[in-house]
């Protein structure tokens, strides 16, 4: 009996500091896989493949976004069913060919195919590290946990974007920047395979603690839901979950747009590749560092107002970038865009964790990330079409307008999710709509 008691998991950041830190490092490697190509690929498209149409150029971002969004769903569903660690390892296996394909690509089709694999890698690995950290820390420090997770990932995006830009300037667009991806993948497989431990028992402990407190239905939601019910709640029916999904989609629309558009916009002012790399690094850099503060702040003041304010700040930043013409103005805009995103990104994930029951938390996180990461594709496709028809600046104004509209939608529909409290009257009553005898789909 004593041995069994000692083997039980514990919740909390301090109790799980070693595993949490390891997962932070793994997620930094996940972010680095994106950073290796963000500065380089738009320039590679022009110089080596002769691509000029924005819509066609943005196709690789759309391919990445659709693959990542789809993989998020599988990551959540499979991690709830089979555990977190197998999904994490599978995600890193998809990363192995990516840098090699980018180095050897004879045409743009190879680049698009590599980004499909990269999207699968990102969906499986990033979703799983998010779920694992939520499992470990329990309810009290969820915002801090998400802030640290996302800070590591997007800090690595920024640092690797800057390093890849430097390597491209010194040694050419290929192969030097993509050697980073080979190193990141090898290290991640080593850490994930040998040192990361399964965290699903921590989620079961959290669910047991809730039941012991008589809190098995958080925010009025049932503990046992089928896959289709989780999808409907997170996407449309539950006010906080669906508001988070909408805000996440618009947030990543901005990121997807910037991924394909910013290097091209910055190149219109005859900036060096190093300056372009710096400008591109400022956005995820401020985003990454800022999340260490904003995630913890949301644990103290709540989620809703940070999300609303962050979307408005993003709208303002995009307007500044659209009006700017030169390094100084664009640097100010990208810093502000990073600050607004830092307010939103970990807070949205924490709010999903607040509302979703541990028994279907992985699936809820997966569905939220489906909608959020579809923003990459929506931003790339719509941004590319608008840029082709009306110019780069019109695409930025479009994104600014959508960000302001998302802020308004969150302000009107979302309720505060932290600290947990009974669901307000306007929220969905799931009991009559979600019968318990459905089988999983």
UniProtKB/TrEMBL annotation:
GO cellular component: plasma membrane
Domain Major facilitator superfamily (MFS) profile intervals: 20-418
Transmembrane segments: 12-34, 54-75, 87-105, 111-132, 144-166, 178-196, 246-267, 273-294, 306-324, 330-353, 374-390
Regions annotated as coiled coil: none
A Pfam family it matches: MFS_1
Gene3D superfamilies from the UniProt entry: MFS general substrate transporter like domains
Highest taxon, organism lineage: Bacteria
PROSITE patterns reported for this sequence: MFS, SUGAR_TRANSPORT_1
Signal peptide, first to last residue: none
Keyword line: Cell membrane, Membrane, Transmembrane, Transmembrane helix, Transport
UniProt topology in membrane: Multi-pass membrane protein
Major location category of this protein: membrane
Compartments where located: Cell membrane
Name assigned to this protein: MFS transporter
Origin species: Paeniglutamicibacter gangotriensis
């Amino acid at each position: 009996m004593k041995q069994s008691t000692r083997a039980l998991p514990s919740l909390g950041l301090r109790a799980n500091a070693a595993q949490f830190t390891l997962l932070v490092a793994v997620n930094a490697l996940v972010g680095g896989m994106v950073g290796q190509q963000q500065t380089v690929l738009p320039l590679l498209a022009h110089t080596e493949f002769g691509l000029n149409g924005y819509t066609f150029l943005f196709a690789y971002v759309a391919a990445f976004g659709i693959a990542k969004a789809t993989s998020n769903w599988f990551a959540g569903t499979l991690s709830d069913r089979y555990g977190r660690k197998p999904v994490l390892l599978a995600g890193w296996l998809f990363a192995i060919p990516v840098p090699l394909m980018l180095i050897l690509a004879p045409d743009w089709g190879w680049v698009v195919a590599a980004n499909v694999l990269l999207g699968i890698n990102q969906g499986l690995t990033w979703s799983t590290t998010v779920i694992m950290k939520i499992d470990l820390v329990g309810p009290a420090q969820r915002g801090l946990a998400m802030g640290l997770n996302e800070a590591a990932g997007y800090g690595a995006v920024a640092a690797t974007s800057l390093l890849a830009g430097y390597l491209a300037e010194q040694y050419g667009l290929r192969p030097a920047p993509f050697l980073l991806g080979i190193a990141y993948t090898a290290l991640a497989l080593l850490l994930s395979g040998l040192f990361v431990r399964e965290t699903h028992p921590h989620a079961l402990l959290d669910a047991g603690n809730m039941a012991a407190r008589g809190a098995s239905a958080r925010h009025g939601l049932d503990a046992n839901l089928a896959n289709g019910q989780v999808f409907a709640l997170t996407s449309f029916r539950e006010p906080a979950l669906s508001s988070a999904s909408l805000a996440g989609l618009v947030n990543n629309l901005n990121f997807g747009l910037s991924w394909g558009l910013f290097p091209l916009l910055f190149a219109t002012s005859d900036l060096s590749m190093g300056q372009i790399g710096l400008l591109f690094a400022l956005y995820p850099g401020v985003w990454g560092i800022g999340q260490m503060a904003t995630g913890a702040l949301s644990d103290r003041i709540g989620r809703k107002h940070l999300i609303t304010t962050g979307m408005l700040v993003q709208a303002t930043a995009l307007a500044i970038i659209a009006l700017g013409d030169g390094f100084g103005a664009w640097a100010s805009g990208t810093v502000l865009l990073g600050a607004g995103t830092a307010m939103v990104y970990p807070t949205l994930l924490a709010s999903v964790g607040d509302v979703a029951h541990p028994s279907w938390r992985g699936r809820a996180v997966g569905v939220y990330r489906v909608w959020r990461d579809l923003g990459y594709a929506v931003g790339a496709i719509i941004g590319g079409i608008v840029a082709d028809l009306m110019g780069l600046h019109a695409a930025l104004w479009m994104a600014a307008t959508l960000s302001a509209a998302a802020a308004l939608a969150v302000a009107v529909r979302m309720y505060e999710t932290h600290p947990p409290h009974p669901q307000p009257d306007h929220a969905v009553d799931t009991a009559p709509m979600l019968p318990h005898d459905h089988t999983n789909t």
